[in-house]
Amino acid sequence: MFEPDEYIFTKLAYYFKRRKRKKQESKVNVVNLIDIKSRLTIFARAITGNAIEIFEAEREGGYKNNNFFLPSKFSELPTIDENISFYLFRILYLSIQKNLNLNWNDNQEHELFESQQKASETSSEVLEMLFEQFPITKKQHKKFIQFYSENIKKNSEADFTFIYGKWMRNNPEEDSKNKLKNFTDKIKKGKEEKPKTILKSKAVEEIISVQVDEKQREDATTQHQFEKVETADEFGGNWRDMDGDDDLKDHENALDELNMKYTVRVDDVAHSVYQADFIENTTVSESAESDSTGYHILYDEWNYAKRRYKENFCKLYPKTLLKSDSAYYKKTITKNKSTLIGLRKLMASVNNKLQQQRRQTQGEEFDIDAITDLFVDVHSGHTPSEKIYLSKRKKEKDLSILLLLDISLSSDGYAGGNRVIDVEKQVSILFGEILNEFNIDFSIDCFYSKTRNHSTYITIKDFDDDWNKAKLKVGAVEPSGYTRIGAALRHSGAMLDKRDTKNKWVILISDGKPNDYDKYEGKYGINDVKQALRELNERQINSYALAIEAQAKYYLPQMFGQNHYQILTTPVEMLKSLVKLYEKIKYQS
Length: 589
Hints:
This protein has helices spanning 4-25, 33-48, 80-99, 112-121, 123-133, 136-150, 161-164, 214-219, 252-255, 326-335, 337-352, 368-379, 420-437, 467-470, 485-497, 522-538, 556-560, 571-586, and strands at 31-32, 53-57, 63-64, 67-71, 73-74, 197-200, 208-209, 262-263, 272-275, 297-303, 308-320, 355-360, 365-366, 389-393, 399-406, 414-415, 418-419, 441-449, 455-461, 503-510, 541-547, 565-567. By secondary structure, it is of the alpha/beta class. The chain has four domains: 4-164, no CATH class; 178-288, no CATH class; 316-349 and 396-586, Rossmann fold, CATH 3.40.50; 358-393, no CATH class. The protein has an eight-stranded mixed β-sheet with strand order 10-11-19-18-15-20-21-22, with helices on both faces. A three-stranded mixed β-sheet has the order 2-4-3, with helices on one face. Helix 11 packs parallel to helix 18 (571-586).
């Protein structure tokens, strides 16, 4: 319990902070990065020709490899248009700065003042090329300089840091001999218990992953203070016991003042979530050999930098789900009864659609094109074809569908107020019901990973399994591990290769972001997924992705291409999308 004076002080601090925040948000000229982020991303990629990602900056921002950091909101200039022009200027400025490679390229930490100073010192070099390539920026730059020069605070110099940003540290390639440290042999398992508190943190530009010092934790002694003061301190190398208590809400005010750059990877369950977007610079190059035993399959992985495969690089362990949860199935069917009825009608409509078959020997109408060809043949002395009719009949398709679910720990999060793993499971149950009723050949599989040495591929319903038994297993699936999509796609292709159907599809349901404990994220992961999809395409296996995370729009286009993915957040939206996809599949040539 808080002491009375502490309680009053905390409430007052909260009040003034909220008041200040509301005052800033109420400004009519404020531009929020999140509102224009997608347009800025397209703009940055068009200008640079690289897959640029945009993140919120802690303050003025800069660039780091293919990532641009910009202020989360900007309202310095008088109008909305002028504040938007600031963001456009910064994108162009950073693109030139990136081309000139003006950034820290070492592994040293640098003070903020030093980074701002370096950016200012090299600004003339950037501006010279910027004005040459984009002359319109000269006028904008002059306007920004004038504004900040006229708004100098008392006894201080003009602050141009928001114009030139700061130098950030590029992430050089890590030593390929590094081994994974700081993780146990057990596979990460998602728990039924979900985080009680989820807060959005301020921007984090870089994180440093530190290893748990177990000895310091064991030796840590409780500190008693005569005056109780609730504070939050930045990590300084000293470890304390992690009791797992959910005190996040109580410390929200204090956390907002800290630099949350230090993280630790553990297998413990999260009771609270403090969310921040950041660049994943915590990766290590390779994983140590796993001690896991049992039947496994070796798959190649694509190294985009060297443009060749790492042969037999990934160990994939195929498993069959044995557990079941009949209560989950019954609850899903009861809750979505009306949705299921609507889906049946949609599928029946699609399945019973009549498609015109041209150039038939008999039918209800003449085929005008065939009649024209007939007259040409008659007048030219050739024997005309008898196939001059249009026939309206169902066009049956030889079809196999593999529904592939991403059940990594990211699926334990929420999108649009829905738990991602529950959206996946409900969609699998309802779509499975429909596919089974219409006698369509289908399979439902899921996957997760923990390094290249342990990718797990779980079959919930194989193509030849009885749906009445398999449907009770879907509810037993729980989030685990990480997201090595490439290996899972390659194994899905191998499963479809065994089907004797002509039209084969892999439908991936995921957050769209490849990542794993070892070096499988960013460009590396995206390019491996692209290559896996090319391999499927070469074997006439089609692919489509459904994502349940808004940020997926920055990853899916790079992997699946346009018109081969959708981003949805509710089971109903996803089911309707699947029915439309089925219609497209059924009537494709």
